[in-house]
Design a protein that fits this description.
Elements: H1 5-14, H2 17-33, H3 41-44, H4 46-70, H5 74-79, H6 82-95, E1 99-101, E2 105-108, E3 112-115, H7 116-144
Antiparallel strand pairs: 1-2, 2-3
Length: about 150
Amino acid sequence: MNNHPYLRAYMAGISVPTPILLVMLTVFIIARFVFQVPVPIERVIIFPMAVVPNLFGFWNMVHQATRSRTHLPLGIHGAILPFLLVPAGFLLARGLGFVEATGHGVNYFGAFEVGYAVEALSFAVAVIIYYLVWKYLIGFFNQVLGIAE
């Protein structure tokens, strides 16, 4: 079953973030319009909804194409992704005026500030979560589609 391995890798990659982002969008919509959270969440959710599933699919295709040369485990390969997503998201948010780096931390929407220590801890947690998601969930879908190592 070696027909279209990159298409199957793409489909396995998008299978995890797509439903998670739909749940997040639902929570954001309820928070914004039912509980009147004064943060313009709808402007921020566009980046993850558009980029993250496609990047997961592309990243799984990259793993499929390079695994024979790199021998990099799927979990480690997935844990590299936050190192691409976080700077890209930060630069986009900063360019659009949602985020501002200050001397004490990062200011979101001019409404609240998060310290750099919390940001660093959040990033470390994100890397661990990505490792686990890629190792177990994306790995499972790769096995189901017959492209696992």
